[in-house]
Amino acid sequence: xxxxxxxxxxxxxxxKAPKAPAVKATKAKPxxxxxxxxxxxxxxxxxxxxxxxxxxxxxxxxxxxxAEIADAFGWLPHTTRGALSRFCQMYKVEKLKVxxxxxxxxxx
Length: 108
Prior knowledge:
- There is one protein chain.
- The protein is of the alpha+beta class.
- It has a domain at 52-106: Arc Repressor Mutant, subunit A, CATH 1.10.10.
- Helices cover 41% and strands 13% of the residues.
- It contains five helices and three strands, in the order αααβααββ.
- The protein is elongated and about 110 Å long.
Protein backbone atom coordinates (compact mmCIF):
# COMPACT_ATOMS: atom_id res chain seq x y z
CA UNK A 1 0.00 0.00 0.00
CA UNK A 2 2.81 2.33 0.64
CA UNK A 3 3.80 2.40 -2.90
CA UNK A 4 0.32 3.21 -4.09
CA UNK A 5 -0.49 6.11 -1.75
CA UNK A 6 2.95 7.67 -1.56
CA UNK A 7 2.40 8.57 2.12
CA UNK A 8 4.91 7.49 4.72
CA UNK A 9 2.81 6.18 7.63
CA UNK A 10 5.75 6.14 10.05
CA UNK A 11 5.67 9.95 10.37
CA UNK A 12 2.77 11.53 12.28
CA UNK A 13 0.54 13.95 10.42
CA UNK A 14 1.27 17.64 11.10
CA UNK A 15 -1.04 19.26 13.69
CA LYS A 16 -3.24 22.15 12.83
CA ALA A 17 -3.58 25.13 15.17
CA PRO A 18 -6.85 25.06 17.14
CA LYS A 19 -9.44 27.61 16.09
CA ALA A 20 -10.24 30.41 18.48
CA PRO A 21 -13.81 30.44 19.79
CA ALA A 22 -16.10 32.91 18.10
CA VAL A 23 -16.69 36.12 20.07
CA LYS A 24 -20.07 37.76 20.00
CA ALA A 25 -20.13 41.48 19.35
CA THR A 26 -21.63 43.43 22.24
CA LYS A 27 -23.11 46.87 22.20
CA ALA A 28 -21.18 49.60 23.96
CA LYS A 29 -22.90 51.24 26.89
CA PRO A 30 -24.08 54.75 26.12
CA UNK A 31 -21.90 57.47 27.60
CA UNK A 32 -23.63 60.14 29.64
CA UNK A 33 -23.35 63.59 28.14
CA UNK A 34 -20.91 65.96 29.79
CA UNK A 35 -23.74 68.16 31.00
CA UNK A 36 -25.24 65.38 33.12
CA UNK A 37 -21.87 64.41 34.58
CA UNK A 38 -21.11 68.01 35.49
CA UNK A 39 -24.52 68.39 37.12
CA UNK A 40 -23.88 65.38 39.37
CA UNK A 41 -20.58 66.69 40.71
CA UNK A 42 -20.66 68.48 44.02
CA UNK A 43 -19.11 71.93 44.00
CA UNK A 44 -15.79 72.13 45.81
CA UNK A 45 -16.03 74.49 48.79
CA UNK A 46 -13.69 77.44 48.82
CA UNK A 47 -10.59 76.79 50.90
CA UNK A 48 -10.38 78.75 54.09
CA UNK A 49 -7.11 80.48 54.95
CA UNK A 50 -6.46 78.04 57.80
CA UNK A 51 -4.41 75.17 56.44
CA UNK A 52 -2.45 72.82 58.69
CA UNK A 53 0.75 74.37 57.43
CA UNK A 54 -0.41 77.88 58.35
CA UNK A 55 -1.62 76.69 61.75
CA UNK A 56 1.72 74.96 62.40
CA UNK A 57 3.56 78.12 61.33
CA UNK A 58 1.50 80.20 63.78
CA UNK A 59 2.16 77.75 66.63
CA UNK A 60 5.91 77.65 65.99
CA UNK A 61 6.08 81.43 65.67
CA UNK A 62 4.78 81.66 69.24
CA UNK A 63 6.83 78.67 70.38
CA UNK A 64 5.29 75.23 70.83
CA UNK A 65 6.35 71.84 72.18
CA UNK A 66 5.93 68.59 70.30
CA ALA A 67 3.17 67.56 72.72
CA GLU A 68 1.23 70.80 72.13
CA ILE A 69 1.48 70.36 68.35
CA ALA A 70 0.42 66.70 68.53
CA ASP A 71 -2.60 67.60 70.69
CA ALA A 72 -3.62 70.51 68.45
CA PHE A 73 -3.66 68.40 65.27
CA GLY A 74 -4.50 65.00 66.73
CA TRP A 75 -1.23 63.57 65.39
CA LEU A 76 0.85 60.71 66.75
CA PRO A 77 4.38 61.55 67.92
CA HIS A 78 6.09 60.19 64.78
CA THR A 79 3.81 62.27 62.54
CA THR A 80 4.58 65.37 64.57
CA ARG A 81 8.32 64.78 64.32
CA GLY A 82 8.03 64.23 60.56
CA ALA A 83 6.11 67.47 60.06
CA LEU A 84 8.61 69.38 62.20
CA SER A 85 11.50 67.85 60.29
CA ARG A 86 10.10 69.12 57.01
CA PHE A 87 9.26 72.47 58.58
CA CYS A 88 12.87 72.84 59.80
CA GLN A 89 14.09 72.29 56.22
CA MET A 90 12.00 75.22 54.98
CA TYR A 91 12.51 77.67 57.87
CA LYS A 92 15.21 78.42 60.41
CA VAL A 93 13.83 76.97 63.62
CA GLU A 94 15.38 77.03 67.10
CA LYS A 95 15.06 73.92 69.26
CA LEU A 96 15.01 74.51 73.01
CA LYS A 97 15.03 71.71 75.59
CA VAL A 98 12.39 72.33 78.26
CA UNK A 99 10.72 70.18 80.92
CA UNK A 100 7.79 69.13 78.71
CA UNK A 101 10.02 68.08 75.80
CA UNK A 102 11.46 70.16 72.99
CA UNK A 103 10.11 73.60 72.24
CA UNK A 104 10.33 74.80 68.65
CA UNK A 105 10.38 78.49 67.74
CA UNK A 106 11.14 80.36 64.54
CA UNK A 107 14.59 81.95 64.86
CA UNK A 108 14.62 85.72 64.70
